[in-house]
């Protein structure tokens, strides 16, 4: 039985309240439902899930989303702090027993095991048992429960290692006759110190891991805790979780915007840099969208909540980063395979070690050395380092990329990005600003500039193509009255046509004119000159005859050339892939340093061009706007969707670049390479540590150089191994891609 | 004699380890309805082995009681699913069990291990 709170939108009166309550109460598992019209909320008791309740409301014509309690976050933080402090306390308790025993033992100050000393050691044994239960109880419980589930993990090794040490030591004290005199050693201090070190290692690891989630904590920190809502004309501050869909909210100067919405009154400038990196505040006015997490600068405005809770762009970004941080690239899969057989293998190696020493060890003390080496093998093996090696670096690497505005979808994308050999760039909106404007109108014959703009704009009004918008804007600037266009048709990669005033009008590129038999030879020279300046000439033809050219230029982004130079410094080849004409594309390539140009490409052929580059053996990254270039982005080894703000198509690409700059591509690639290097360091360290440590612990060096590993040193090494892996991953936090 | 006993016992122990951890399986929880509650505590998922018929969508409700970082994520690597498990709360993970097979779910470090068996 549970309570679910929902924010419901679309309710306007008591009639709606009754409908909503009825829809909820009719959902299976619901025992009661109460609606608060003023707050736009519904509180439901029962066993129905939030998704079932929301579906029932959506069927009834309403919209709803679950409200979560933000106090939960504080509870979680405090539980984790308690756990951390608990580990330190347990470590201290074990160290209080173990450390003095170790020191006095080294100084030879401890009593013998026989005679009066037996009582002393019995007491020490019982104290050690107490410490093992208090400080190490969770290992023994974990080992037992895991074993019941046919599973063996780190707890198994620690429990068996320290348990063996304690049991053997108690046998030495209570039943000394069972063992040869030379085997009469006790290991209470080893057991206690190992438990102390493992707990300390766990605490250090927790602290280090806390830092690995810095990036996502920063993103979560962008979400404000309260919002100012206006209900029935009264303004009040409410917790963010209480804001409902369609509610009116006020944002004052300097405040962070609480949810996604649309401005209904007022205007201001908004700093969106924490999401997009755009340093210049963006002007916002009535009808404009605003986004949760951004900062309102100077004005005050009212806006209507359109997306709340999990649906805001910020929440989706956080979710995406979280998911990516949990995903594993191919490089980590070997470690997983090894991790799954590791512990039982170590158990077998421990038994084999015991038998080897028992059968072939120095005759006088074979039991003793067999026990010591077995214990040391169990303690030194560290599956945790192996298991942590990849995911911890991924966590930091993905978080680092997010800091630089690159949202990486998963571990495979992160790994692949570092292997790219060729970057394919779309032109409009990627290399250029994506805001084309008319720079020249060149009529021919008896046509005037206004005529061309009027006819061009009449055809193109309503079209969302960037070139069309430029023409319509130019006509609007001249305040030209537009004509009615009938039988409008768009021909992809060519242009558009319609009937205006009874005459067929064509607007498009040279290919369109050629295919329709329009003679544009007189305009060829002008067109060439424009293209050499990286402008795009749009031909206009009326009733079968060329009427002139409208020239459109889309300025190259200021940092495109610098970003492309950085790509070259990384050894990448850069290719421009565009539907624009060859001459314009060549001019853009010249100005930015692009190596190869593939121009005049029809939209449906872009993916094929990517495929043919891949067939040449290249590992191809494609950068586009995520919407028009979707097939090519999907086919590329890594697809980068470059954003124009917070309206980026997050779903489609392997890597989404929140900042509309090509530097984001290079930053993502450099972070990828740094992360993969970090993973390799961790994996190498974990593999080498275990591959060397276990044989040395088993005593393979003893026949040659008489070397055996002290179990306490093994405990320290094991505890430090995971901390080392996490600390190495933390180094990535300071990585700078150098943009 | 003592040496024989010790060696036989050692070999028997090795056989037990191989059998218990690699060859035999924990008892599976057969899923009757489409929701399974899984407790995350003390290093184990309870139940750790869940059997479900193919072609069903099932909802796994993880209740995390372990505060250590080990338990904070659950990953279904082969299914491409991951979830952050909030401490002391139920986190629902929906799985589309379309294809028959065995799918392991683990924490990030493979301390916690479970298996979803789709038959």
How would you describe what is shown here?
The complex is a heterodimer of chains A (739) and B (119). Chain A has 739 residues and is of the alpha+beta class. Chain A contains 25 helices and 26 strands. A 7-stranded mixed sheet of chain A has the order 14-26-25-24-15-22-23, with helices on both faces. In chain A, strand 24, helix 22 and strand 25 (638-642) form a beta-alpha-beta unit. The model of chain A has no long low-confidence stretch (mean pLDDT 85). Chain B is α/β, with parallel strands linked by helices and 119 residues long. Chain B is 18% helix and 45% strand. Chain B is built from 1 helix and 10 strands. Chain B has a 4-stranded mixed sheet with strand order 1-4-10-9, with no helix packed on it. In chain B, strands 3-2-5-8 form a 4-stranded mixed sheet, with no helix packed on it. In chain B, strands 6-7 form a two-stranded antiparallel sheet. Chain B is globular. Chain B starts with a helix and ends with a strand. Chains A and B meet through helix 3, helix 4, helix 6, helix 9 and helix 10 of A and helix 1, strand 3 and strand 7 of B.
Short description:
Chain A is α+β, with helices and mostly antiparallel strands.
Q: Give me the oligomer status.
A: heterodimer
What is the tally of helical segments of chain B?
1
* Total DSSP helices of chain A: 25
Largest interface: A-B, 54 and 45 residues
Overall geometry of chain B comes to: globular
Helix content of chain B: 10-25%
User: Helical percent range of chain A?
Assistant: 40-55%
Distance between the termini of chain A: 53 Å
Order of helices and strands of chain B: HEEEEEEEEEE
Question: Which regions of chain A have little confidence, pLDDT < 50, spanning 5+ residues?
Answer: none
Please report the total strand number of chain A as a whole number: 26
Shape summary of chain A: elongated
Main sheet characteristics of chain B: 4 strands, mixed
Q: Which structural class fits the helix and strand makeup of chain B? A: alpha/beta
* pLDDT averaged residue by residue of chain A: 85
Rg over alpha carbons of chain A: 35 Å
Q: How do the strands of the widest beta sheet of chain B line up side by side?
A: 1-4-10-9
Please indicate the percent range of residues of chain A in DSSP E strands (runs of 2 or more). 15-25%
Number of strands of chain B: 10
What is the percentage of strand-forming residues of chain B?
35-45%
